[in-house]
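During the no-cost extension, the postdoctoral fellow (Dr. R.K.) reprocessed legacy sequence entries with the updated structure-token encoder. One reprocessed record is reproduced below for audit purposes.
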Amino acid sequence: MTDTPFHFYIKRNGWPMTPLVAYCPGGKLICPKCNSKKITLFFKPGFPGNLQHIWCKVIDDRDFSLCDDYEIILKCNFNPNWVCKKCYNGGVVLKNE
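Re-encoded structure tokens follow.
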């Protein structure tokens, strides 16, 4: 695991720059559905900037879990999101209590 996490904006050739911000904590995450390690964490457009710094610290400290429960997703509007690039499962990042 690296000590220098970074942000990057998703961009593809011929596509405009999007306000979607992906976050890489420097370690592998596991999809709860298919056990794949191809997980991307991201902050959706409109995510409050003052909360982004707090969530980055939670993610860097590995004090979180990946949730794909639909009822919980509906209640977590100000949480970062995640998506599995293998099975396309997705959800929200939850801070461990």
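The chain has a mean pLDDT of 82. The two ends are 23 Å apart (CA to CA). The remaining legacy entries will be reprocessed before the final report is submitted.
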